Amino acid sequence: MKILRQLLSKLQLLIMGTLMAAIVVIVGLSAIHFFPANVVRDSTPTVITSPESNPIKNDSIESIPTRELANNQPFLQHFPYAETNLEKLMIVGSYGKDEYQRFEQLNREAAQKLMQLIYAGRTEGIWIIVISGFRTIQQQQILWKTQVKKLGSEQQAAKFNAPPGYSEHHTGYAVDLGDGRFPNLDLTTEFENTTAFQWLKIHAQEYGFEMSFPPNNSQGISYEPWHWRFIGSPEAKTIFANAKNTKF
């Protein structure tokens, strides 16, 4: 009888051990599925946004005119940029909610520095969020057509948006940032009045970022306090060399 009780006790332990091992395996497989290697998960607060600030689905995109993309020359005071290799991108945050939620990506080296910047801000009570990162030429085409229709001409639209093939967002080194406490100021010049912007003005350069379109910039583009580009690596500096050194 004593031997039987010992056997039953060992059997119970074996069953419990097997169940625990199965649970660990299942959890591990789930983590691999949802959090693939080399991907930074959403570490910025989700912000409610309107449909207008989200990229339009690609099923409504028409072919992109090759007039602007056929050469390597500026067009309407914007410089041409090739789309980065998608394998170089990392997720840096999410923006929007429910059906409008999207995950934003940057080039790995820019992404890592941006996350350091965001964490540094948080230690000082600053809530910096990612609004928009990498953008395809197709997505830019939709935004461009919308702006041209709204403003009446390509010349006017170019003061506020880049033509497809000419957006810094194509590179994976440009990012639009906002203040998590003031989502209503996203993508507006009033963003400059937030603590997030004031902090960025002082500290962004420490992490390799600079404002692409400050007031009275050489490209003649409208002031965009939310738009920052990464120049903290030789590759990034080369990509934006023309934009930094050319005056129109």
Write down the Rg: 24 Å
Query: CA-to-CA gap between the ends?
Result: 96 Å
- The percent range for helix content is 25-40%
Q: Can you name the CATH architecture of the largest domain? A: 2-Layer Sandwich
Largest sheet: 4 strands, antiparallel
Might you state the CATH topology name of the largest domain?
Muramoyl-pentapeptide Carboxypeptidase, domain 2
- From the spread of the alpha carbons, the general shape counts as globular
**What is the count of β-strands?**
6
Q: Output the number of helix runs.
A: 7
Supply the helix-strand structural class: alpha+beta
H/E topology pattern: HEEHEHHEHEEHH
What does this structure look like?
With 248 residues, the chain is an alpha+beta fold. Helix content is 35%, strand content 15%. The protein folds into two domains: 1-34; 37-245, Muramoyl-pentapeptide Carboxypeptidase, domain 2. The strands form two sheets. The protein has a four-stranded antiparallel sheet. A hairpin with a 6-residue loop joins β1 (89-95) and β2 (102-107). The longest helix has 33 residues, at 2-34. It is globular.
For the structure shown, list the relevant keywords.
248 residues; alpha+beta; 4-stranded antiparallel sheet; two-stranded antiparallel ribbon; 6 strands
